[in-house]
Input
Amino acid sequence: MNVNLLHLRSFYAVAKERSVSKAARRLNISQPTLSKQVKALEERHKIKLLEGRRPPLSLTPAGHALMEKADVLFGTANEIDAILGAAAIDSDRLLRVGTDSPPYAAAFLAALTARVPQLHFRVTIANASQTASLLTSAQIDLGIICEPIIQSDYSYVPLYVDRLVAIVPVAWTVSDPVPLSYIVEQPLLVREPTSRTLAAVKRLFAEAELVPQRIVELHTREMIREAVAQGLGISLMFERECPPDLRIRVLPIDSTSMALYAKGYLAVRSEHQRIPLIRAALDVGREMLGSNVTEANVTEARR
Output
């Protein structure tokens, strides 16, 4: 009795996610359809593979054994696709991108569009944590994420290295580079608590054993830039996120701490690497790393 590969892939997705709803989003099919396919696999072979009604679902001993074999099977299929070059890139495919770094996302999409001229894409802007959640819930195909939490089912390609810089009103007289001791004496304008920029700022000050005297949360980069331009305080941003503005100055920070630097990655579900468009996207990311490293942070990029 031959195995239905569609039903096997459905089981494999549920087994990996331990959730029918997450697996359905991952495969872009409805939950009832996915449940029917898994049930059909069990009934056809008269074997129970999954237990439980609510996530996280449990695997029976047979389910564990089958998942291990499916890992090998689908992994081998990916390798065969790579050897044969798989199919030509489907120019009608929509690439859903999520990012916490709009400037890098724009540069990446420009480079990918040069390779795939008919590319269709949709971009969702969110912070790093939200972007990672969009990826794991299969609401996006590819994430451009700063310092992601590494997960075994995902593949990561380094895309850029960036560094924190100080932005100050153009009218202020400030040392260049700006001492941390000066920064903590000014009103410090910051992003929301879940921002990866704020996390980097906190690490920087913690290492220096300094505490800002006053912190003002303004949530968005645009609002912070406007507030700095109006002389309401000073802020730290990653260098590529500071668009030219005659009302502000962008200055290096007087510190040798590695907390100044952040690395960004392209992140995709590992099993999707066999999709020609995803493979092309990862190739573009690998080629872009060198051009996304400034002279100021080239040392960190080589680490």
Q: What stands out?
A: The chain is about 40% helix and 25% strand.
